[in-house]
Design a protein that fits this description.
This protein is an alpha+beta fold. 22% of the residues lie in helices and 35% in strands. The chain has helices at residues 41-51, 55-58, 60-65, 75-89; strands at residues 7-8, 31-38, 96-106, 116-128, 135-146, 152-163. A six-stranded antiparallel beta sheet has the order 1-2-4-5-6-3, covered by helices on one side. Strand 5 and strand 6 form a beta hairpin. The termini are far apart.
Length: 166
Amino acid sequence: MTTNGTRTLSASDFAVPVDDRYFEDYRPGAVYEYGYITVTEEEILEFARRFDPQPMHIDPAFAASGPFGGLIASGWHTSAIGMRLLVDHYISRVAGLASPGVDELRWPSPVRPGDSLRLRTTIMDARPSRSKPDRGIVTTGGELLTKDDDRTVLTMRAVNLILRRS
């Protein structure tokens, strides 16, 4: 996975950089894209051997004869790539508190060796917390897409707690 050189791909980005971003900067309806990370066979094998040792992820010969016709990345590896792009470009470095979870995580198409991936984020909702006025709750729709053919390889709905500006 090559993370050097990932960049903003959309025509516009947040008005402030990720290290000065607060809840007020997350505007519902805004769409941003970031990328690319290219996945190698070696990385697929390494991740899967450690965390998801199913044959379609760790055995190229088995995978070639299986339903996917070749080696594929674990969905958890795909999710980790999406997380890397979120952290590099989207989640505030100064005001991001935590995430209570991710909903509707799906892997509609497999990631294969050589795929270059980009992240598309859509801010679905941003509302102040009712119980803690120093923060807000941001709900983001996320998609990972392949560079060459725009295949969607991950969809999710993430929730983040973000501090408000003082």
